[in-house]
Amino acid sequence: MKNIKILSILTLFSVFCSCNEKVTNEKPKPDGFWKQIGYGNIIELNDTIISVYNISKQDCHLSFEEHILDFGKVKKHSKDTLTIRHGNDDWLFTRLEKLPNLCKTSKELNNDPKHNFQVFWDTFNEHHASFDIKNINWNEVYKQYEPKINENTTDLELYTIFREMIALLNDGHVKMEVPEKIKNEYKNQVEEQEEKYSKLDEFKLNKEIAEFYVDSLRNYNAGMVRYGLINKNIGYIQINSMLMLADYELQKDLDLRNFFGQYWEKAENRKDELQRQDEVDGINGILNSILNELNGAKSYILDIRFNGGGKDAVAMAILNHFSDKEKMAYTKKARIEKGFANPQKFKIIPSKNHFNGNVYLLTSHLTASASEILVLASLANTNFKRIGSTTEGIFSSTLDKELPNGWEYELSNEVYQDLKGKNYENVGISSNYQIEYSKNKDAFLDQLSDGLKNKKDRAIELAIELEK
Asked: The domain containing residue 151 runs over which residues?
């Protein structure tokens, strides 16, 4: 009987220890409040729902609530730190015990013009990464515009002031979205210069260039990617966006307008993080097919002269198909009020199906944003030669923000650097073989159109000559 009692006690003790061990070894849940390092956000996680607060020196307000996969994926977490994977980036957070009091204050100032101006100025002051490069004194900008605002400032007047401040930055990644009524009122008072070429005209021209040089031109996704052989042994791939590359099983013969509508109808039903992966999977599938189909190519021309950007991860997936060694490609770091966060490092990781020979990368001033990431990362590869004009010089991902009055805006808060620590923001990356394309879009497309009339594209001709 005594042995049975002892056995029972030992059993209970064993069970207790086992349960206690499970508790102590259990990973802490990421639910709760977290402050993002370098991006001016506080988040609250509650199972699969994330609430995002914009915070600046004098304001904190709830910007949006959504499913976590519309924000990113939880990569790892501990009691005090959290990493969320957002596309190609790792966003770092530190735990907060509670929401700051600033986030709980009255919303009476939400529509106050002076308060909204202050939040706008503060956010740029704390996060915009390129004041020094652009030689802009943001404090002087404050002194110039703050006296113009009072409690009676209209929405149109406030928007006009924000537009003027944004124009000073000369940055294609700085934008503001306001209600349609205010937009229309602004257009009525400002005569905006119309562009000669529409997006459809641009696509018609780049198709004509490809058709002139390539035998049996083929394409994916309504011309987002065009490809074929030049002179039977030079592969030509024209990539016109770092977006709209996923395979959503749409009709193969859709024109651009119908493709665009049907594509985004499918894409917008996907959680953001899943849709980003769709884009990467799409370009990987496209390039695998092209490399298999053009397996007789001795070299490749990658034409990104018309590529205005999209997803950085797509740019790196492209480069991975034309690289034979794993290596560092570039770094980036986010601005914080008194400096920068620790840099993230990005690697080239060769695809299983990759090409090792010469690659001629064609660029222009329309080559911008994520397509410039491809150019930046290609600097690490000795098999790449760049032909064309300097890229636009807008590398930073956009930091999305919202004013207390609900107006949405974007700014550039990151610095991208090559392996030597050089930053190309605002200046762009020049080519090994420079062609003086115009920085004006209409003039640049006129140059290409005139060249085609004379049965010649200088960049493609130069690539062919260099390969000879």
From this structure: 113-189
